[in-house]
Amino acid sequence: MKPVVIIVMGVSGSGKSTIASQLSVALDVRFIDGDxxxxxxxxxxxxxxxxxxxxxxxxxxxxxxxxxxxxxxxxLSAVIVCSALKRAYRDIIRQASDRCVFLFLDGDRALLAxxxxxxxxxxxxxxxxxxxxxxxxxPQDDEKDVIRMPVTLAPAEIVAQTIALLEA
Length: 168
Hints:
By secondary structure, this protein is an alpha/beta fold. It has a single domain (about 5-165), classed as P-loop containing nucleotide triphosphate hydrolases (Rossmann fold, 3-Layer(aba) Sandwich), CATH 3.40.50. Helix content is about 45%, strand content about 15%. It is built from 7 helices and 5 strands. It has helices at about 15-25, 40-45, 55-75, 85-95, 110-115, 130-135, 155-165, and strands at about 5-10, 30-35, 80, 100-105, 145-150. Strands 2-3-1-4-5 form a 5-stranded parallel beta sheet, with helices on both faces. The radius of gyration is 15 Å and the shape is globular.
């Protein structure tokens, strides 16, 4: 498989970190949690329940794009967790590297909310789910670099199907 950066995307509660970490192990590539690339001010805003604006997200998306480009330019693959909720956000990453694939973890609000209520110690609070869902622009058919997976599948199945599609 040629070097690729897989951006595991979706709203909070979709299982991005779980799937990304398992995918990185299965592919034996670097796992990068996009939350670690947020400026501190963004984390503080989210922790207090304040949704981020596009202006807030821009430096974060640029950092993710630069990280993805750095990996592929050096012939390396990686898996990065990034919500990438809007097409414009995905386009920022696409402009940095044409070797990115987006894995969209899609699920309904009830299941996502249930998952979020079971998490402890995460800065994203369950009541911010509606804000993320309102922001979400589901990938369209013309976004050929997107793999769509339902969150109702077991993580191992999502990982196996994703790898099979990447190798095809």
